[in-house]
Amino acid sequence: MPANHPTHSGPPLIAGLLLAAGGGRRLGGRPKALLPYRGRPLVENAVRVLREAGCGPVHVVLGASAAEVRERADLAGCVVVDNPDWAQGMGSSLRAGLASLAGTGAGAALVSLVDQPGIGAAAVARVLAAYRSPASLVAAAYGGERGHPVLFGADRWADIAATATGDKGARVHLARHAGELMLVECSDIAEAFDIDTPPDLVRLL
Asked: Can you give the CATH number for the domain in which 181 is found?
């Protein structure tokens, strides 16, 4: 049996993979993981959402100001992955995160972004519920448009890692396998905005 396939009885493990390495270039160099949200660093909210939705284990990929994030944010119980190549783009963080999941027995990785606080546990759980096998490919949709989170069955990790470069992330894999992608509409329970620029910060209040 392949190493990434579940070997225990019961429901398969679906790991939460949180990409939180961004340096917030358009925010004046403020690392997104440390943006204040409800009195705590934004990364803590993203971890809580994954856990409440049923993901386990939760792996968090850090990059910009990683040491400061470790010091200021409560990431207890998470597997924290340092990505020294974070400045090369999201693809490097996705590769680092998927590599960290090798041997965990997870049947899939649910990938979420640290800067989307409008996506809560209800939307993540809806995507999780669409898992069928290690070949699953599922994404949340908003008005029919693909967004996050995205669930990648373990059988897909090698190809995603091989094609994730720059800021493309998993786009190459998703484009090649568009006919296999299951979209799960979440616009009724979530808002898929990003915190990218100073005007966006009002959404954290």
From this structure: 3.90.550.10
